[in-house]
Structures are given as structure tokens and as C-alpha cells.
Amino acid sequence: MKTAEIMTISEAAARSGVPPKTIRFYEEAGIIEPAARSENRYRAYDDSDVHTLRFVHRARRLGFPLKDVAALLDLYRNTKRASRDVKKLALKHVAQLDRRIAELTAIRDAIAALAKQCQGDHRPECPILNELGG
Amino acid sequence: MKTAEIMTISEAAARSGVPPKTIRFYEEAGIIEPAARSENRYRAYDDSDVHTLRFVHRARRLGFPLKDVAALLDLYRNTKRASRDVKKLALKHVAQLDRRIAELTAIRDAIAALAKQCQGDHRPECPILNELGG
DNA sequence: ATTGACGTTCCAGCGGCTGGAATCCCCACA
DNA sequence: TGTGGGGATTCCAGCCGCTGGAACGTCAAT
């Protein structure tokens, strides 16, 4: 199956990095078009489908929510798109990430500071619990 | 109801910061003990329950998973605990946060770099989509 | 003919809530 | 005493993005 033009779901999965279960899920969720079917009712994928799956996979790895992945895919396919719209989505995501990172960092530092105060031995005294207890 | 010793769920919610729905959820999930009931079958909370709820609330705000919150609560109540066990949980969480923060930061920087390359105007050309498309 | 590795569908569950429906209860006011 | 409104109660559904499993069909190789 080296130059397969038509392939099964697991082959498409291997080539795209998206697991079969997830491919079906994306189809059901309307992120990708329902796959063509071969005579045995198996889903049949070609290189172009794999390309799409790869796109989705990369977008997901960049943490875009599925809704945005769908939107990006639409933009990708629409050659008359405005790059403004793409950038807008990207910057929205960056802003979201920045907020989340700031949150997590604040939490991380707070806990690390408390843990530093804690002896961490056999004794019960512990600033972490004191803090949580108020 | 300023110095109420016994109170309803919404009062406990107001005092602890945990919404009524969430209090019920915590009870159902076994994080907190089933509340006492008054004659009308309403849940009845006292100051000590509120204290517990506050503990849970703070632990959650620090991002501890519910399982760990339950464990922390057990440690909090067990005066024979070893601070070692508390610190261990805390440091595990810090490590987890560090991993997550690193992930998000990498993603953030990648998208920000791509967005910077993107003109963001009426034209279709866009490095973000080029990247996602491979 | 049988095995075993695929494929298919559908349903359940993860974490941590949150919203809604249907019902019940209490209290204030007329 | 009726009524209205704001609680409380239960249970079920849904959010996000999968992931695992059951029950069954299909295919290639032995």
C-alpha cells in the first residue's frame, strides 16, 4: 500500500496521525465531510482526504478548538478568503492561550511557594493545608 | 441570617463560594460527606461544613483535580498526617502545571510567530494556512 | 473452515461542572 | 385561606474532545 490512492480508515489514520475513532468522530461532528464508501460499506479515503485530516491534526495540535478548526478548514479551502479572517482567529487563540498561561503560572507559583515552606517530613505541620484551611 | 449556625444550601454556597449545584455534585461525587437534613428534607449546613466547602473551593482554585482535593481533605482532617504526603501531592501538581504551561507556551509562540508573518488584509495569502496545510 | 485482524454501528464514560424540567416546600401578603 | 414567588429537591442532558467497549460484518490467509 505504498502509493495507495484509495485506502481504509486505519491507513488514513496512519498517514494523517488521526486515530480511526477520532476520524469517525470528526465526521459525525461535521468537522470533515462524510467519507466515501467502498462496496463493502467501509469508509474509503484518498490522498486528498488524508491531506484534510493532516490539516485538522495540525490545527488541533496547535490547540485550536474544533469549531475553529472547522472555520480554518473552510478558509483554507476558500481561495477567495481574506488573510485578515485567518489572522483574527489565530490572534484570538493566542489571547486565550496567554490568559490560560497566566492563570496556570499564578497557580503554579502559589503552590510552589507553599510547598517550599512545607518541611515534607513525618510531622503533620504543613503550610499548604494551613492555607487551604484558611 | 448573620450568625446562622444552621443554614440552607444557598447560604452555605454564598459563604463558601461554591454554588449550590456544585455542592450537590461534590456530595454525589463523594468529595464531601452527605449533608445533614432538616425536617423538610432540605440539606442543612453549619459553620464547619462551610469551612470544609471553603477548603475544597480553595483547592479547586489552585487547580487540584477533585481526586486530589479529596485526598488533601483527608490529610487536612487527619492530625497524624505526615507533611511529606501533602508536599508530594503539591509537587506532583506543580510538575503537571509546569508541563502544561510549557506545552501551551510552545503552542502560543508557534501561533504568534505565524500570525506575525500573516499580512492580515484582504488578500488570501496566509502563512498560517500554509503551515496547517503542510 | 477457521482464525484473526480489520471494519461497522451504537452506547458509555472521562472531568467538572452547569442548565433545565418537574415537583415540593415555606413564607408573606391580601 | 388562597396565592404567588422564591427557594429547595430530584433526575436527566449537555458541554468538550475524544476513547473504550460491545456486538456484529467483512476480508485475507491458513
Would you mind describing this structure in some detail?
Two copies of one chain form a homodimer. Chain A is mostly helical. In chain A, strand 1 and strand 2 form a beta hairpin. In chain A, helix 1 (9-16) packs across helix 3 and helix 3 crosses helix 4 (66-77). Chain A contains six helices and two strands. In chain A, strands 1-2 form a two-stranded antiparallel ribbon. The termini of chain A are far apart. The first copy, chain A, is elongated, with a radius of gyration of 23 Å. Helix content of chain A is 64%, strand content 3%. Chains A and B meet through helix 3, helix 4, helix 5 and helix 6 of A and helix 3, helix 4, helix 5 and helix 6 of B. Chain A binds a DNA duplex (30 and 30 nucleotides) through helix 2.
What count of helical segments of chain A does DSSP give? 6
Order of helices and strands of chain A: HHEEHHHH
Subunit organisation of the chains: homodimer
The SS-based structural class of chain A is mainly alpha
Short description:
Chain A has 134 residues and is mainly α. Helices cover 64% and strands 3% of the residues of chain A. Chain A has a two-stranded antiparallel ribbon with strand order 1-2.
Write the layout of secondary structure elements.
The structure is a homodimer of 134-residue chains.
Chain A (H helix, E strand, L loop, with lengths): L8 H8 L3 H9 L7 E2 L5 E2 L2 H15 L4 H12 L5 H35 L9 H7 L1
Antiparallel strand pairs in A: 1-2
Helix pairs in contact in A: 1-3, 3-4
Chain A binds a DNA duplex (30 and 30 nucleotides) through helix 2.
